[in-house]
Design brief:
With about 290 residues, this protein is α+β, with helices and mostly antiparallel strands. It contains seven helices and 18 strands. It has a single domain, classed as Fumarylacetoacetase-like, C-terminal domain (Fumarylacetoacetate hydrolase, domain 2, Alpha-Beta Complex).
């Protein structure tokens, strides 16, 4: 089963895909994809529904982030060996994590805005895990059982903000539009193995990242269990599980996004994203 949210920014409605792959408006039955509606047991019940009876939605509609009420976005750093190598850092013994502001959230095909004062905006294709049940001091099995589902995230990063201003990773990760999420959430029961999914990213049609989630140092269960020792995880929380090698910062010479660039990324079975890069001055928006 796959779920999504569609409509203009700030006015998204919940939707579900039917067995034929058509998008259906489920707002008459589900107020939004948040809270208890993300519980894996709730998805089992909804799986009995014939979604073909629901109103159809034009697939050309704007997709928003597939879940609402996201309380926190937690990013995992250095979770692929090749990315740690290109960053010139050792593999961690424990997961490295940071927080990313929820105001960075955007739809999967919304533009990426180069923030005011930013000139080192980078890309990071990542598998995102959506929590479906409250977790605190969980073991790995309990953590995996609490997963609502999986989706795609581009952990956009401004490297100067992140690395050249006192080592504040959150600062470089939290600008507006720096967390495109979606296009849909595939429920956990429909993903055979989250640790065996091809993941890729291209810039202007040129492949930059190509890997598989089996290259992750710490798996989904280990990440959620570890995080739940330090903070309570709530339904809707997002854990971005790290990026493989091929980011712009790791190239020689380094390569960063510029206005007009087109970023495309995807994960097998979880959908694809496409973002056009817009400069702060042209967008007349604020960030940072």
């Amino acid at each position: 089963m796959r779920i999504a949210r569609f409509g203009e920014r700030g006015d998204e409605r919940p939707a579900i895909f039917d067995v034929e792959g058509n998008l259906r408006d489920i707002s008459a039955l589900v107020p939004d994809w948040s809270g208890d509606w993300l519980d894996p047991d709730r998805f089992k019940m909804l799986g009995l529904l014939d979604a073909r009876l629901l109103p159809p939605v034009d697939m050309g509609v704007r997709f928003g982030a597939p879940v609402a009420g996201i309380g926190k976005i937690i990013g995992i750093g250095l979770n692929y060996a090749d990315h740690a190598e290109e960053a010139g850092l050792d593999l961690p013994d424990e997961p490295v994590w940071f927080l990313k502001a929820t105001s960075a959230l955007s739809g999967p095909n919304d533009p990426i805005l180069i923030p005011r004062g930013g000139d080192k905006v980078d890309w990071e294709a990542e598998l995102a895990v959506i929590v479906g049940r409250t977790l605190s001091h969980a073991d790995e099995d309990e953590a995996l059982a609490a997963v609502a589902g999986y989706t795609v995230m581009n952990d956009v990063s401004e490297r100067a903000f992140q690395l050249e201003q006192g080592g504040q990773w959150t600062r470089g990760k939290s600008c507006d539009t720096f967390a495109p999420l979606g296009p849909w959430l595939t429920v956990a029961s429909a993903v055979h193995d989250p640790h065996d999914l091809d993941i890729w990213l291209s810039v202007n049609g040129e492949r930059q990242q190509m890997s598989n989630t089996h290259q992750m140092v710490f798996g989904v269960g280990a990440l959620l269990a570890t995080l739940s020792r330090y903070m309570t995880l709530h339904p809707g929380d997002v854990v971005a599980t790290g990026t493989p090698g091929g980011v712009g910062f790791g190239q020689s010479p380094k390569r960063f996004l510029r206005e007009g660039d087109v970023v495309e990324l995807g994960i097998a079975g979880l959908g694809e994203q496409r973002q056009t890069v817009i400069d702060y001055h042209d967008a007349r928006t604020r960030c940072g």
